[in-house]
Amino acid sequence: MEKFVIVGGNRLKGTIKANGSKNASLPILAATLLSGGICTIQQVPRLRDVFVMQELLNYLGAKTVFEGNTMTVDCTYVQSQEISEDLMRKMRASNLVLGPLLGRFGNVKISYPGGCNIGSRPMNLHFKGLAALGAKISERFGYITASANQLAGTVIHFDVPSVGATENLMMAGVLAQGTTVIRNAAKEPEIVDLQNFLNAMGAKIVGAGTDVIRIEGVKELGSVTHTVIPDRIEAGTHMIAGAITQGDVTVANVIPEHLDPVIYKLREVGVTVEVGEDWVRVQGNGQLKAADIKTMPYPGFPTDMQPQMMALLTVADGTSVITETIFENRFKHVSEFRRMGADIYLEGHTAVVKGVKRLTGACVEASDLRAGAALILAALAGEDGTVLSNIEHIDRGYERIEKKYNALGARIIRVNS
Ligand SMILES: CC(=O)N[C@H]1[C@@H](OP(=O)(O)OP(=O)(O)OC[C@H]2O[C@@H](n3ccc(=O)[nH]c3=O)[C@H](O)[C@@H]2O)O[C@H](CO)[C@@H](O)[C@@H]1O
Ligand SMILES: C=C(OP(=O)(O)O)C(=O)O
After folding, report:
1. Which of 379, 285, 359, 345 has its CA nearest to residue 315?
2. What is the CB < 6 Å shell around ligand 2?
3. pLDDT one digit per residue (tens) for the chain, 417 residues
4. How far apart are CA 114 and CA 304, in angstroms?
5. Which among 101, 138, 390, 406 has the fewest CB atoms less than 10 Å away?
6. How would you class 15 by CB atoms within 10 Å of its CB: exposed for 0-12, middle for 13-18, buried for 19 or more?
7. Domains of the chain (ranges plus CATH)?
8. ipTM value of the model?
């Protein structure tokens, strides 16, 4: 098992480049299953979840080549529409093959996906939407079977805006007969990227980025080359690395608008943030001030940045209130922060964080991807050394994060023990 040994106390300085977005790459790679040709996807991050998606595509009969950050996917000869439980359990985003396989082949059998333990993460909205398009859905022994001779467009209204359900429904709707309308759709930038990818393949979708998405069904989809958008969550994590170490960090390869919720919150906390065309620069200004946060669907403050922002607020002057509204179990990092000397009171969906002068080193565990990233940030600002275990969670979403931070002056060693 690998661990990180982190020596805190160094100010991070310099430029760090964000990779392509994990959460945009995964649905786009799943969407290649809809193509009768070869798709070339650029700026794909080399992450554990992406490798799992590649394994999934190969398992289904696709031919994939992943060189550098470009993945070529040929789904011409995809045959299988049934996926083993072992493979499905490797990540949450494996559920994104449901829509495209059903749309193209009219038949799919998968088990429930795995993924980070941050909440119950049901799939009822995916199933309700697909059933509204005419699919017959059944569940038996943990397996879900969906079938339809021909999906037919209709109006779907989500109870809550779900990113994954919006993506699955878009991918199922592109080859459906007639028009599919998704109301109360999720508005995340990764959904806009998926729309752009599908449209470049020949789909007719408008409205991604708003809460109404309209899809005119087409007969087939072709080949395309597409560049994935930069990862706003990775970029936001690096911004906090600059802020929490009172450093001076420029994050390159970003779409600043996607970072607005983080930029405005960091300014409220007293951090200087300069915004360029495709970069942001973060400078620590001495004292950090408390601020309240409520996670919300985009363009609200992202739940995927909540643990990292909590790390920053543990050392801010005053009391911050953090409310998690998206996932009911996304506070597992709190007990680990406490081991590092943080003063946090937890009640239900709310964490009350009283800032302390400094965190101390400790032996802590990453319970999930962003909790792990947040513990790195806390350790960078802490006194002494921290040993962080379960770092395989972090490798799901960050490509060699220790290498990037060490280039800015951090001291993080990956050890095997
Ligand atoms: C690969 C990927 O893109 N993952 C992101 C995606 O996850 P994911 O797509 O799984 O998250 P959703 O947007 O679906 O979840 C949002 C909320 O909807 C609920 N829900 C969802 C589906 C459903 O059928 N029924 C239901 O009730 C969930 O429990 C949650 O409370 O969006 C989340 C919310 O921004 C992010 O944290 C994840 O990083
Ligand atoms: C929760 C996340 O991812 P996933 O939905 O793939 O578990 C995340 O990226 O923070």
Report:
1. 359
2. 23, 91-93, 115-116, 118, 304, 369-370, 397
3. 899 999 999 999 999 999 999 999 999 999 999 998 899 999 999 999 999 999 999 999 999 999 999 999 999 989 878 898 899 999 999 999 999 999 999 999 998 888 778 988 899 999 999 999 999 999 888 889 999 999 999 999 999 999 999 999 999 999 999 999 999 999 999 999 999 999 999 999 999 999 999 999 999 999 999 999 999 999 999 999 999 999 999 999 999 999 999 999 999 999 999 999 999 999 998 889 999 999 999 999 999 999 999 999 999 999 999 999 999 999 999 999 999 999 999 999 999 999 999 999 999 999 999 999 999 999 999 988 999 999 999 999 999 999 999 999 999 999 997
4. 17
5. 138
6. middle
7. 2-17+230-416 (3.65.10.10), 22-223 (3.65.10.10)
8. 0.99
Calculate the CA 88 to chain-centre distance: 17
Among 305, 326, 331, name the best residue to mutate to test ligand 1's pocket (greatest count of ligand atoms within 8 A of Cβ).
326
22 carries a ligand binding annotation: yes
Ligand 2 atom closest to Cα of residue 164: 5
Angstrom distance (rounded) from CA 372 to CA 374: 5
